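Readers of this paper often ask what the protein records in our data store actually look like. Such a record has a labelled line for the sequence and another for the backbone structure tokens. Nothing more is needed to write down the fold, since each code stands for a local backbone conformation. The record that follows is passed on verbatim for readers who wish to inspect the format.
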Amino acid sequence: MELVSLVNQNYDKLNENDKLVVKQILIFQREYANYSCEKMANECHISRATLLRICRKIGLNSFSELKYLLNNNQLELKNNNNDFHEVCDDYRLLINDLKKLSFNSICELLYHADVIYIYGTGNEQKSLAQEFKRIFLSLKKCVVDLFDKGEVEFMKDTFKNNDVFIIISLSGETKEGIEIVKLIHNYVHTISLTRLDSNTISSLCENNLYVSTQKLETLQVTSYEVVGAFYALLDLLYVNYINYRRSKYEN
């Protein structure tokens, strides 16, 4: 079991001071892996007894188990030094996969839509929604971003059959996102943008776009998910939409 995973599983058992101590240990784990219990406690400005109590709170029976996990994690970190190259390789594979996709059906929906509604399930997803809005406003499309379920409920009676509703969700499993799609899928065309996984939101939507993401283990309590693939997807959608629109003008 990794130390970060143990901390995440038992995070609610920690008080605010405990959380600060755990965060410090995770940040400086390379140095602390060689410390004695007393020296680590001194570095964290706590007593030896407090350090042992924190160990028990996160599911460890002794300080020795903490030392084992810290040392084991150093081996993991050494083995993961190629994260940068792996991310680069993933991007190359992503672009190759996206180049094989056909955007025609989605471009057709966007082209004929009077209004494109867009909703992101979280902060990063709302940033992506804003980027989509910026791109398609530059193409003279009417894009309305909706903040929450209440706004969607307020606007749904104005939806027309040729309008499009786009929902962006990393997991595709957020409760409000699922409720929103169920609420509007009979009123408007739906498109989901989600992580490349089987998920509820994509199963409820008429059209789906997927991208692969990668989670990197860091020295922090939570892992970092590389989501730049979503922005690459928007760029490719933009290019494909321009080509689709040009073909309409030429016919």
Summary: Strands lie at 116-120, 143-145, 164-169, 189-195, 207-211, 214-216, 224-226. DSSP finds 13 helices and seven strands in the chain. The chain has a mean pLDDT of 85. The CA atoms of residues 7 and 221 lie 7 Å apart.
